Amino acid sequence: MSFLKKYGFHFLLLGVISDFLTPYVLGLFYPELNQMTAVMSMFGEVGSPVRGAFLIWSVVAGCFYTLSLPAIYTTFKETSKPLAGIVAAAIGSYGIGDCIFTGLFSVDSAEAQWNFSTWVHNIGSGIGYAGFLLFPLFLSLIYRKQKNLQASHRYFVLLLLSLAIAAIYGLARIPQLNQFTLFQQLGFWQRLSFVFNYLPMVYLAIGRLQKKV
């Protein structure tokens, strides 16, 4: 456990880097996929030439996130054990629900009905994305409790940016809005949304590694 507490933020950074690079590296081997319009889960679809690599990579990235949890909890438990637990749970829910479950319980969008794998995948993904999205909110509350208002405001601004882009991405998923140019690039908005979700984790990891935050 001491090893994970010492190197947990390295694992968090590795999780972000591996997760972020997934569509761009795999896209080199799947040039037929239009990344501006296709969501990232298409890499794991039945028939995808990179399906195996995508599923394995998702599990690996999820494991990196999970390995960071002891360090995250230990860092903030002196400020507030409940908030420290919530912050760790937010990352854990994403690492397990949206990464590991994606790799272990893949779906086939061509199937008319949901099977067990589809249920686990979609529920885990939904819970995981919620934790992913709300992570900066919990950090903002912790730093406010520490009286570090500068850090608190920074994470709150990152939260607002994440919510704004996520809202556009959510609207782009509504078929009736596809007629508008803004909402036609679904893949672009998903990837941009994830970038803003990654930023709070990157800032936290680098800050802790440099012992500045």
What features would you describe in this structure?
The radius of gyration is 18 Å and the shape is globular. The longest helix has 30 residues, at 116-145. It has 213 residues and is mostly helical. It has helices spanning 2-27, 51-67, 69-76, 81-104, 116-145, 149-172, 186-209.
The largest β sheet comes out as:
none
Q: Specify the number of helices.
A: 7
Distance between the termini: 23 Å
What is the CA-atom radius of gyration, in angstroms? 18 Å
Principal-axis shape: globular
Produce the secondary structure layout.
Elements: H1 2-27, H2 51-67, H3 69-76, H4 81-104, H5 116-145, H6 149-172, H7 186-209
Helix pairs in contact: 1-2, 1-3, 1-7, 2-4, 3-4, 4-5, 5-6, 5-7, 6-7
Give structural attributes.
single chain; 213 residues; mainly alpha; globular
Short account of what is shown:
With 213 residues, the protein is mostly helical. The protein is built from seven helices and no strands.
